[in-house]
Amino acid sequence: MELTEKSQGSTPATQASGSTYVQAPGYFKRLTVVDWLFAAALLAGAVFAFNRYGHFMDVYEEAIMLLCAPVFAALGWHWKPVRWLMALVALLSLWAISMYAGQLDMGTQKFWLRYMISSQSAILWMSVMFCLSTLFYWIGFAGRSEAWSSLGTKLSWAAVVLGWTGMMVRWYESYLIGADVGHIPVSNLYEVFILFSLITAMFYLYFEDRYKTRQMGPFVLLIITAAIGFLFWYTTSRDAAEIQPLLPALQSWWMKIHVPANFIGYGNFALAAMVAMAYLLKSSGRLADPLPSLEVLDDVMYKAISAGFAFFTIATILGALWAAEAWGGYWSWDPKETWALIVWLNYAAWLHMRLMTGLRGRPAAWWALVGLLVTTFAFLGVNMFLSGLHSYGKL
């Protein structure tokens, strides 16, 4: 039972120790009318989507759709900014869908679709916003200016709104091409780099809000800008933005949960590595003043790795189940599977050393930073240099 110390002047419930306590209200009793209205709106949205697009879904996809309402309601209750993020993305996405009117070629005819909220336009604006956000975070960091850093935060939020809108609209556009082509946009390197950027940014913005500091932003946004740079190169050199039919091996509902869980892990590992870089700079005496305390940096690094490890573990289990369905075996020592195991073991060892031996400080930070190299090879290097059953995202 959760107990909190009662403030002075309250009627005490005296205990043997002499301290006075009152029972804290239960979780659901702390929710407000606005919280419940938010949950009701999500449920209504899920029911609407189910009725409108349910004929495109199988039973597993229907279950995922209905489960999204309580999951996102809990997320909105825990982190309030997510509420208006969801509302804006929903409104912008529905606006884009209404302008398409069931015809894909409207994307080149309607002004707002062509230049703002078609999938490619929204994702392009997302990329611009992330790059500008990185610039303003660094200007604020170098000049000790909260105003410039605040602008970096606002631009990051704008990028997240536009990025998620682009992903939702791209999902719809795939169905306009053909019912047999339509799929969730997490099936190739172009799409997962967008997903990686959005997830990393959202987890960073959560930690920024929780710790009330923007001084980690310049470092975390660097990895997002690097992903955007790769996205630009990959798009222009491979025409990667074009929506393509799914390969047969990817035509499974497992993809809808395995890939997002995987990239929540990758995003958190990348975030932890960039915070580790900030830790190393501060602990060495370089850039010491503007950065948060070592304790804060260490705590963010630990929590990011913990969250990433949890989701990466789930993704690995889901991947094994998917492999059993697609290839007849849970594990085949394919290069992608092998490197996923190496990533998992690396962070399992990091967490074990922290919990069992109290790993802290510069050794933990260096380990987290080197972990980014391991993760990057598992994410990209396998596609570039190795081949196997997972060779759908070749460069």
Topology at a glance:
Elements: E1 3-5, E2 21-23, H1 33-53, H2 59-78, H3 81-100, H4 111-117, H5 119-143, H6 146-177, H7 189-211, H8 217-238, H9 254-283, H10 294-327, H11 335-357, H12 361-385
Antiparallel strand pairs: 1-2
Domain Cytochrome c assembly protein: 186-390
Pfam families: Cytochrom_C_asm
Main location: membrane
List keywords for this structure.
mainly alpha
Record the strand order, biggest sheet: 1-2
Please give the count of helices.
12
Low confidence ranges: 1-19
Q: SSE order, as H and E?
A: EEHHHHHHHHHHHH
Helix content: over 70%
Gap from first CA to last CA? 54 Å
Class inferred from helices and paired strands: mainly alpha
In total, the number of strands is: 2
Indicate the mean pLDDT: 87
Rounded Rg: 23 Å
| Major beta sheet summary | 2 strands, antiparallel
* Overall geometric form: globular
Strand coverage percent:
under 5%
Quick recap:
The model is unreliable at 1-19 (pLDDT under 50). The radius of gyration is 23 Å and the shape is globular.
Describe it.
By secondary structure, the protein is mostly helical. The protein has a domain of 30 residues. It has twelve helices and two strands. Strands 1-2 form a two-stranded antiparallel sheet. The longest helix has 34 residues. 36% of the residues are buried.
